[in-house]
Amino acid sequence: MNFPGANTITIEAPSTIFTVFRSGATVTFEGTDGTLISLPATTDQQSVSFSDMPPVCLVIDAGEVMLGDQRLETTPALIDTVNS
C-alpha cells in the first residue's frame, strides 16, 4: 500500500456503521455492512470523509495515530471524533 503525500479518502457511507482500529500504522475501518477499508497513516495528513460528517484528518502526530481528535488503538472503537 503506497499513499505518498496528502490524500483525500471519501467513504460514501455514514461513520456510524464503522469501527476503527490500527495495527502499527495501518488503520482499518470495519463496517456493519461488511465493508473493510485499510489505509496507511502517515505523518502527512490524509483527509477522510464520511457521508454524515465533515472530513477529518488521519495522521501520525507525536507517535500517535490520530483520526481527528480520536487516538486510534489496536482494539476496535466507534468513530468518535471532531474535525481537528
UniProtKB/TrEMBL annotation:
Note the superkingdom of the native organism: Bacteria
Name of this protein: Uncharacterized protein
Report the source organism: Desulfamplus magnetovallimortis
